Amino acid sequence: MKRVFLSLSLLLAVSMVTGVFNSCKDDKDGSGTEITDPTDPTDPTDPTDPTDPTDPTDPTDPTDPNKYDWIQTTSQISYNADGVTEYTRQEYTYDVEGRQTGYKYYINGTLRSENRNYQYNGRTVTYDYDSYDTNGNLQSTTKIKATYCDRNWMQLTSYIYYDADGVTEYIRQESTYDAEGRETGYKYYINGTLRIQYRNYQYNGRTVTYDYDSYDTNGNLQSTTKIKVTYSDRNWMQLTSYISYNADGVTEYTRQEYTYDAEGRQTGYKYYINGTLRSESRNYQYNGKTATYDSDSYDTNGNLQSTTKQKITYR
């Protein structure tokens, strides 16, 4: 589900959340392993839903021949206008259990951030987040702690970003789920003050609506926005649309649309603001576990401004 995390790179570096949340239900044997391939339409155990607690396989289990192939990435590259020279590169590493062990982010070949020193204890992982300047010089190291649902290694129940002392919480994110593994709540704190909350989840088939509350620095409610998310029939990880509404709760402010092929691989993405197309991902070409596609950017009037090449490789 889309949400405001520290940054996409940080979220992906931990994920892509057990202790205190009873709503994050174990699989049927309590081992924390479940899920057949949510991208395999021939899988008879469920409509390929990785949140089905009756399904005993796990997309991150290397012994499962139907593991969740199109979720975990090993690299993602965006190119400059020439389509050849790399602009940004992201690299991910995993252990044999499918748990993330490293992440690096480069701009124009210079390392700008790194997640390292992953330490797993049950469903909780701690690691160091390093930030570098434009010359690649280390500027800071921050501790991160993430806790995952017993269900799988894709659903976070908490995510904590510490201050420089490594003890004081700076940012905390909390998520809750129902017995089917569907999200039922989300909270985002800065220095102990609630700043964002998702609540009042209403599921209707594959569509969920909820309220998005925004708070000021003192924790006072500033606004409430309606959100509507629709998932593919395949699983609860693949969005087909994500809509945020204006204050009236009726008029669309932003809309995001996703399309997939029969194997569950993404084939398109569009992002609109007030009905105007602002970005698009198209022309997906798959070669084994690697996909290339074009990323288009549009101005406020919907005029094409730039097209860049993207390449992503999956585990």
Secondary-structure blueprint of this entry?
Elements: H1 8-14, E1 73-79, E2 86-94, E3 100-107, E4 110-121, E5 124-132, E6 138-148, E7 156-162, E8 169-177, E9 183-190, E10 193-204, E11 207-215, E12 221-231, E13 239-245, E14 252-260, E15 266-273, E16 276-287, E17 290-298, E18 304-314
Antiparallel strand pairs: 1-2, 1-18, 2-3, 3-4, 4-5, 5-6, 6-7, 7-8, 8-9, 9-10, 10-11, 11-12, 12-13, 13-14, 14-15, 15-16, 16-17, 17-18
Explain what the structure shows.
Helices cover about 0% and strands about 55% of the residues. With about 325 residues, the chain is mainly beta. It has one domain: Beta Barrel (Porin), CATH 2.40.160. It has an 18-stranded antiparallel beta barrel. β12 and β13 (about 240-245) form a beta hairpin.
| Cα-to-Cα separation, first versus last residue | 21 Å
Largest sheet: 18 strands, antiparallel, barrel
Q: Report the order of strands and helices.
A: HEEEEEEEEEEEEEEEEEE
CATH architectural arrangement: Beta Barrel
The rounded Rg comes to 20 Å
**Residue share in helices?**
under 10%
Provide the domain count. Answer: 1
Broad shape: globular
CATH level-3 fold name: Porin
CATH class: Mainly Beta
Tally of contiguous helical segments = 1
Mean pLDDT: 82
**Uncertain ranges:** 1-23, 25-68
**In percent, how much strand structure appears in the residues?**
over 45%
Total strand segments: 18
Find the structural class using helix and strand composition.
mainly beta
